[in-house]
Fold these 2 entries.
Entry 1:
Amino acid sequence: MINKIRRSRHFNKETFMRDFFHEPGNVPGTLVIDENAYYPEIILIDYNTDNYTKQEIASPEECIPFLDGNSVSWVDVRGLGNLDILQRVGQIFDLHPLVLEDVVNMAERPKTEEYEDQLLIIARMVVPKKNAFGFFSEQVSLVLGKTYLLTVQEEPEHDCFDAVRSRIEKSKGIIRKSGADYLTYALLDAIIDGFFPVLERYGEQIEDLEEEVITKPTQKTLQKIYKIKRELLQLRRAIWPQRDVISSLMRDSGENISDEVRIYLRDCYDHAVQVIDMVETYRELTSGLMDVYLSAVSNKMNEIMKILTVVSSIFIPLTFVAGIYGMNFNTEKSPYNMPELNWYWGYPLCLAVMAAIAGGLLFFFWRRGWLERSLTIKQD
Amino acid sequence: MINKIRRSRHFNKETFMRDFFHEPGNVPGTLVIDENAYYPEIILIDYNTDNYTKQEIASPEECIPFLDGNSVSWVDVRGLGNLDILQRVGQIFDLHPLVLEDVVNMAERPKTEEYEDQLLIIARMVVPKKNAFGFFSEQVSLVLGKTYLLTVQEEPEHDCFDAVRSRIEKSKGIIRKSGADYLTYALLDAIIDGFFPVLERYGEQIEDLEEEVITKPTQKTLQKIYKIKRELLQLRRAIWPQRDVISSLMRDSGENISDEVRIYLRDCYDHAVQVIDMVETYRELTSGLMDVYLSAVSNKMNEIMKILTVVSSIFIPLTFVAGIYGMNFNTEKSPYNMPELNWYWGYPLCLAVMAAIAGGLLFFFWRRGWLERSLTIKQD
Amino acid sequence: MINKIRRSRHFNKETFMRDFFHEPGNVPGTLVIDENAYYPEIILIDYNTDNYTKQEIASPEECIPFLDGNSVSWVDVRGLGNLDILQRVGQIFDLHPLVLEDVVNMAERPKTEEYEDQLLIIARMVVPKKNAFGFFSEQVSLVLGKTYLLTVQEEPEHDCFDAVRSRIEKSKGIIRKSGADYLTYALLDAIIDGFFPVLERYGEQIEDLEEEVITKPTQKTLQKIYKIKRELLQLRRAIWPQRDVISSLMRDSGENISDEVRIYLRDCYDHAVQVIDMVETYRELTSGLMDVYLSAVSNKMNEIMKILTVVSSIFIPLTFVAGIYGMNFNTEKSPYNMPELNWYWGYPLCLAVMAAIAGGLLFFFWRRGWLERSLTIKQD
Amino acid sequence: MINKIRRSRHFNKETFMRDFFHEPGNVPGTLVIDENAYYPEIILIDYNTDNYTKQEIASPEECIPFLDGNSVSWVDVRGLGNLDILQRVGQIFDLHPLVLEDVVNMAERPKTEEYEDQLLIIARMVVPKKNAFGFFSEQVSLVLGKTYLLTVQEEPEHDCFDAVRSRIEKSKGIIRKSGADYLTYALLDAIIDGFFPVLERYGEQIEDLEEEVITKPTQKTLQKIYKIKRELLQLRRAIWPQRDVISSLMRDSGENISDEVRIYLRDCYDHAVQVIDMVETYRELTSGLMDVYLSAVSNKMNEIMKILTVVSSIFIPLTFVAGIYGMNFNTEKSPYNMPELNWYWGYPLCLAVMAAIAGGLLFFFWRRGWLERSLTIKQD
Amino acid sequence: MINKIRRSRHFNKETFMRDFFHEPGNVPGTLVIDENAYYPEIILIDYNTDNYTKQEIASPEECIPFLDGNSVSWVDVRGLGNLDILQRVGQIFDLHPLVLEDVVNMAERPKTEEYEDQLLIIARMVVPKKNAFGFFSEQVSLVLGKTYLLTVQEEPEHDCFDAVRSRIEKSKGIIRKSGADYLTYALLDAIIDGFFPVLERYGEQIEDLEEEVITKPTQKTLQKIYKIKRELLQLRRAIWPQRDVISSLMRDSGENISDEVRIYLRDCYDHAVQVIDMVETYRELTSGLMDVYLSAVSNKMNEIMKILTVVSSIFIPLTFVAGIYGMNFNTEKSPYNMPELNWYWGYPLCLAVMAAIAGGLLFFFWRRGWLERSLTIKQD
């Protein structure tokens, strides 16, 4: 029942779209396991106002005792590399086959779907890379029940939930006093706010490029601009549906989410809109940069042409004059044959004529303002 | 009653729009048979939980016994080359003349229309070509009745329903336990998912072009970009109305589609949105590539101009100097006439001056950073 | 009461917008007769299931006997060149002054308006030119009453209703059994389907240009692209409001249009949407062509520059070398003055040096891949 | 209470936006009088079916006797240069302070606002300039009461109401039989129709530019295109809200406007939509022209480069050959030193070689098709 | 509880977006104090029809006596540099933690939120710089209660409320007779109207650039255009949500805002729409300018190339002719070896030939119209 996955070769390119292609004609609900995926590790955090437990559990069944009761249980599955474990998780939480498929098959579009007493949220999380530009992008699925929250991440590294975990552990804010819906909100908020540091980097890079594009436009500049453009497209594709998810949670999510949490979601929604605003602004700036680049390259060409034109226009006529007096007409045959060659002041006069021509042309080009810029050493 | 078909000469160009032009003023319901079309072959698959029959039938009437009863009958007509057979199919399934026209006349826009106890769905299927880029695009018409599904395809090759046929035959999933509406869903899902492998290829090609456009931009690159752009336009034209079709099936399709299947259609709808997302992203990337191409070509020109400028600017002045001492002023007539020619160190000094000029210019260009790039051998 | 018409000088240019400018401040309902317009000829077709009459009538009043009764009367007025006749037509059909103004004054925007027992439809018809690209565009006004349909065309030639006339005459389809509303539908359908042959030509032309723009981009190419762009704009301006007209007929047109005909209008609406789809696709292709053109021109420039650069870079240094040994330094004055001139192997050595320089440069350019393309004869 | 007006220096540039800037923090209702504005002149036209009076009145109070009664009074204030008169007008017509502010402060956005028994309409009128391209743009405020219409214009010249005045005077159409609401309609219709002659000029200018941009693209062409673009932006800014005004009058304007007049407004609305259509079409054409311009300039550059390349490529090698035989190698020292110089046929052979080179290159360029175009005299 | 603020390095660049990045995972309601922020100064203005008090207060608690009673109290906090004071302000006004966070954390998106008996408005104020282009942009938070208005600004300088303060002090208009909601309106109106002077400058700058871009397009021009584009993006980002804020205040703001003030808000809304109109128009003009710039640069290149082509095309052939007669063929060996050198009129004839060539080429270029423009001194 496990089909061979069809995955684009983009997989190992971290910042490009890791698009998941649905195998046409598959039975709906088919789980596709990627052989290179991480083996799932499961972290259980169980808490209420008074108690707090955190443990890594080996088999999914270990979390069953925690699910019923008056505490919030957060079961965090990280890694999608084992079919058996994922299916057992599905059974424990009584997931609809389509839900399990959405959770396991990455690269779904962010969305929310309501089931009888569960709420499925597919979100996309971005985490900036440590020492390079770009970011990791990862799908996070959240299944919210009455007293539990099941989250499924693609891999154990790179998430942006540490601050939330610490808030639970240290009982900061009202999180320990609230239910699983508040936890869902807190995670969604962390996901949305996780876009800001990524965007901040693009803002800085765009600012650097604004300088570079004018002073030193090279092929590299062009590649950088295009790369930013592509990655912003990717961010945009991630954040737009996420906004709709939050908006839909605020309005339609039934009894799974309390009114109190809805107020907090409004705040989260505002941040999502702000992220969208910034992505769109950066996209416009990037496309403006492309225009500027093109103009700057044309400008550069003008400068190059000016140098060529100045040098050629001055020396080609001079060379012609020199060429004339290099001709071998026989001055003895006729007084009209290059008498200048035999003049007393012939050579100095010839040089003077050349100097006059050069001076005239230099004046012409100087008046046009070509000399200052063109002939400065070290322009770019 | 059969009019001569007006078909654009695009017909044999597989990837361009095979637009069907309605003959102005025709009686509505006129069937237009293309002489080169395939002779229809009819495959009947009849199944329920317990039984499974698959047979190719020669005359449409053979399927009548299967239509009534408690099994699902899938009548798959492949080929539109015979008027008589198509009309008999129309009579057997009691099709409205306009439905029959839509089914037979290819190149309709995807749409869905509800008739008394039938549901007409016009869809468009894409199948990637085997050994070339591009894809085949084909219209599929589905007529859903209580216990049967009639599908009409343009030609017997290239469809993406094999996986569904195998699911029926091997009774995978719930398909054998479900009705004709589930079969409809399964086929639609296969059609939508059929866009993914096609898109995957474009994703790869765009990625290749991202490299090519910077390092080696040629006319071919330009043609490839334009071709992708054109084919994405075509995909877009196919998928957008298809999304609306599915959305409308989810909402409005009356009793023809059961609530259970509607849930599955939601999944199918998500995939259609994902296809649209990818098509639009690829279109934006393609149009970004065009900008990059233009910039890269300008950059290339700059490099060419730099070489010309460096070479000309260095040698033209030197040639001028050589030209001066090639003049024939009579040194005997006057001590001012080119005394340098008779100097002891005249020639070496002249060469030294030339070297100084060349060195100065080389320094000037080196400071501008032109030499490194321009004069490397093997740039592109 | 007849004002001088203000008409743009575009009138005689067939493919550009023949915009009609409303004289500011005119009494509403003012009829403006163009002196160059055709003298109206009136064709009456009267039919029911059993009878069929077609006659050209000289005075509008001749059609009065046909209007009451149990047959459908189609009064087709072609030409707007006579005020008196048009006013008499207005009286016979009891037209509101504003309706008559809309009918007579061409270049209205397609629209539909409902009056007490009449329905006014302003449509725009396009007819491809015979031996040239481009099309004629003409306003057709339809006034639908209970048992009659009045149509007013700008001129007697060029319409796309012949097939409908033949269907009436030969009693094809259900037209003879249906009312005036079905006739209205049939004409509208013919008008919409009339866009297809026009579009087909643009499709072909775009395909030709796709080749031309890369292999042989000239000023003419540019003009053609722009011309297509402009004419597509015109088609778009005609078809968009027409779609709204049909959509509004389907929904709002009261008792003038029967439910049965509404089903047919749905088909007509689909075709209008398809026309819009094609116009928009062609517009995108055209604007892509403009980008390709610009890029191809830049590419061409690169090729030109490469030739110049190759030729100049090779021969300018060589000429410099020749210039050196053309100098007249007195070899007798000093052993340092151009001793090469007196060497036994001087000349061959000099030629060898030149050959080495030329060879080196050729190798440099060959490695850059400039020679193959640039120096092939007959490139474009 | 009268603040110093902050007005952009664009004021005297007729075609650019005369933007009025609201002084931040002002008391709402503050009237700002421009010192250079015209002194208001007040024209009163009072009419009903039987009577007609037109007079210029010196003080606003003179119109009070006309306001009550069974005639329609049109009070037309032209000029905004006197605070006292405007305030007295405000008192007579019992205007809300905000209404008076909107009326007096120019450069409001077209809008309509309903007050208890008054209807305020802010419109924008354009009048083509006499002997130049471009147009005057002026705000017209209309205050419609039961039996009167107050209009306020910026200045006494340039309006497009003359035809309406003449219709009233000569009792053309139904204007004398209708109320103040019909007069309002007539003026709005004249304002909208006033856009047509302005647009007509742009249509003509665009058509001229279509030729110029290809055959003779200069800086001037560029400036003209940009100017048209800018002015179309201005027209667009004026007409879009005006359409909304009319649409809102048709739907929401309460009892101030009778049902009969609403039918006429529909016609006016159609014209507004047509104006928008044309503005948008012209904008698209203009932006197409910009693309064509850029391409044409690049094309021109190609032609220039071809000439340079042809001339250089032919003569530079020839000059090199001449340079070789200008070298001074001593032929007496060695038989290898330029023996050609002493050949009997040396010079003719040398010329023949040159001719062969030149011929070969000419053939090469001719095959590329560069010669015909490049070397024709009088190209542009 | 105070986290280290993550602030982009854009902070000190005044005109770029000072984006505030929400720390992912923070407890909602966390206050982030910027160490470089201004120490809050608090101005209290308390007024009713009869009384007026204005004082700077040192501790927030001093305003408590004013809050209850029949006067309007405007508490204006300027500066965000002290956590304690801000928290005490929060307690005094009983602010929800999320409200306090929004107020303190700058760079929120303009929005309005309704709480039980308070209305929160986040607005963005722009103030033009004194001696430079660009503007300061600052967040203003307004909390409207029954009898008080709390405003929080980022810093004590640069606001646009002076005119409102003076209206209160001097009792201009109805402000002293109205409630806190009118004060809110007055401040919002001042904020919106504050965009006009900023926009005015851009209008002027665009107009200057329209000239510069054609006559003297340099790198600087390009940078200016891009800068304007970027800053307009920023203005747009500020004004669009502000329009929605006002629109929402007009419709939904419950009992906090009286009907009378709603009428005034309509005026304010009109101004916001006008600002948007201007921003969008300026953006279109700016992007048109970029196109013009690119074209102008290309044009300039054409001029440069023309000069080069004219000079080269004239002198290169002449130099070739001179080169020919500089060859050293031995005229004594053969009568065919350069007999011209020994002709009586050899030299003058040679000069004549050169003059003829030069004349012919000059004529050729003059006919093409290249000479007038290219060779005028002082072109740009």
Entry 2:
Amino acid sequence: MDADTLLEVALRNALASTSHSSCPPKLAAALQYAVFPGGARIRPKLTLAVSQACATGAEHAALAAACAIEFLHCASLVHDDLPCFDGADYRRGKPSVHVEFGERLAVLAGDALIVQAFAVAADYPQIAKIVAQAVGAPHGICAGQAWECEPEIDLVEYQRAKTGALFAACTMAGAAAAGVDAAPWRAVGMLLGEAFQVADDLRDVAGISGELGKPTGQDAANGLPNMVSKLGYDGAMELLETLLGRVIAAIPDCPGRAALAKQIELVSRAMVPKQLARGAA
Amino acid sequence: MDADTLLEVALRNALASTSHSSCPPKLAAALQYAVFPGGARIRPKLTLAVSQACATGAEHAALAAACAIEFLHCASLVHDDLPCFDGADYRRGKPSVHVEFGERLAVLAGDALIVQAFAVAADYPQIAKIVAQAVGAPHGICAGQAWECEPEIDLVEYQRAKTGALFAACTMAGAAAAGVDAAPWRAVGMLLGEAFQVADDLRDVAGISGELGKPTGQDAANGLPNMVSKLGYDGAMELLETLLGRVIAAIPDCPGRAALAKQIELVSRAMVPKQLARGAA
């Protein structure tokens, strides 16, 4: 079984208990719909890659961390798409959960995914704490979203909380799963999250539907901050290049450092929209 | 410090990290608003009472379980009050969270409370699993709420999931915190939850604003199942009496059994609205 298939099987198994025959059928269906088929699964793959680079044989803990993080990511997308937030009708190339199942089931599916993430990670207290920090208040995804409700946005804090924190959880939980010190891995994730956000902003402005299959031009439509409007197109591209270099440099020493650097470089390159890459025809 | 004050202090401490100065101010305020001042705090008090009846010296674990359960209860109230569900404007005698802070912050505060519950319980994997079961899918609060989205409601499964499951988590997590087998404690919580639901239905129909300070007549207004409409007033009162007897009988042997039975009886009596109690003038 290749690594991608292994991850999908792990996600299916980790979600299986929620779809027990006694679950209200629409909720069970909404949970499956929110998680499958996935986007690029960048976060769980990063988690597994870091764990493998740090040590071998920690597969169970690493998969638990990867599944928990992907469920939390999916939950954040479901709630973020709600009419009271972005009101996005499409996600991952299909109608968003609230469009397909209604608003009530979208709220509940998001809630149940958060709960299931912690059920899956419960046997690993350190991993549970790392992912909780990445999604709750004051520094996680909820806080990131909540900056959108403030009269003045702290742009750095906003993007760190909304995007960086969960990437940092990937690298830190991956290290923790392998039994090594998680703290030095924080910077890699935060920088990668920052790069990812810039790439996402570039795609949004350039009108290129990216990894998530969501509509473009949303930031302007929703009055959200965007790095391209702040730095201009060339400035944003330059920032992205700089960040990708810093990501690689920040990887701590570990047995699989070279292979991990290569893998992260590949993922990072894939972030830059082909249509925007330097030297593209 | 008396037991009630100790619990409030523990709740404040467990929520404190979310209100760090870097948290978006409105989210921090909404989180405090959702948890303080509380209702009767029946669930965390039950958790602590069971733990103390089973063993002494497990205070840290028991308080963690109690705080996690209360946060999850508060989260469920915040999301349940949203316009897409009950659309309740009042809760615990004040405007509900979405009325005071807007719908977006109500969604986020609920999410962040779920996350914080698991952050608080992270050091106790068994407790984390017990509370996850009580709030997620297929048998927890999310599933209970989701039955309201189905064309046909399984009334027994609905009330077990929506109310019984979290009461069962109280008794089971209390036992687990004390280091004893949690399974025999499930029945006490489920029966107590059932009794609580019947008492709530009686208050709703009789127009008596109960523990939660919420408007009455909501079940009929929202087309939700209610035991009084099913069994009639006398039938519902009789069922309540029977259930309370079964709760006491179901308490497993433990060092503090007699004191716990007395405490649960007091709580149970308080559930029956005075205006409805037999023999009331």
